[in-house]
Specification:
The protein has helices at 12-26, 37-44, 48-60, 79-101, 107-123, 128-145, 149-152, 155-168, 176-192, 195-215, and strands at residues 34-35, 64-67, 71-74. The protein is mostly helical. The chain has a 3-stranded antiparallel sheet with strand order 1-3-2.
């Protein structure tokens, strides 16, 4: 992990948090790897209290795990936890999808299309953190388009799980073009208003994709 040049000109806490997020999502720092407060403090030229604050931020985001008397490490999800989380996410995705296809005005679907248009250039950028943020923003937009406030309360936890899943399997994922195609299929499916077809596409995108990644050997 390399200290970015911008650290001398920007808030060190924000810069350190950004660097650690990027390193976790890209797979540079692996799940289960310990993070050392003293080493990071020296590398980034900041106080140990600043490092602890960053640890707290990333722990609240679900990327790190704190263990009493054992320090902080990148959180690791078991295969069973990933699959269970994706099954729950699929069910919640369908709550959003139902609200979108039941909207006779088409405004909710239009929101999803707009979000996808913004997603396309970001996901094609060769930056793992930017790709993840674009991914999360697009899926959150689907939930927001549903106008279901109760559903949206579950988004912070869901986004943390997605981030961990991406980080844990970053070396086994497909290309940005493949990601773009899979998300395009979700938009196209919603446009059909065919619930069975939509259900199939979202299941493939979440649960089946997770199963395939877990079965695939790392490169």
């Amino acid at each position: 992990m390399h200290r970015p040049d911008l650290l001398t000109n920007t808030d060190k806490k924000s810069a350190l948090a950004l660097q650690l997020r990027s390193s976790i999502v890209s797979g540079e720092i692996l799940p289960g790897e310990r993070l050392k407060e003293k080493a990071l403090s020296e590398e980034f030229g900041c106080s140990r209290s600043t490092v602890r604050e960053v640890f707290s931020i990333l722990t609240s985001e679900g990327l790190l795990a704190k263990h009493p008397n054992a320090g902080v490490e990148v959180k690791r999800l078991s295969s069973a936890e990933i699959l269970s989380a994706m099954e729950v996410r699929f069910a919640l995705d369908m709550v959003a999808a139902d609200s979108i296809i039941e909207d006779a005005t088409g405004s909710r679907l239009a929101e999803v299309r707009s979000a996808f248009s913004e997603y396309k250039p970001a996901v094609l950028a060769e930056n793992s953190l930017l790709n993840l943020q674009a991914h999360l923003t697009f899926h959150e937009a689907i939930w927001r388009a549903s106008e279901n406030e109760v559903l949206l309360q579950y988004w912070p936890l869901t986004s943390s799980i997605i981030s961990l899943h991406v980080a844990q399997d970053s070396r086994r994922r497909g290309s940005a073009t493949e990601d773009l195609e899979t998300h395009s299929r979700l938009v196209d499916a919603l446009a059909t208003r065919n619930r069975d077809f939509i259900r199939q596409e979202f299941y493939t995108h979440t649960v089946l994709a997770a199963k395939n990644l877990l079965d695939r050997k790392p490169y």
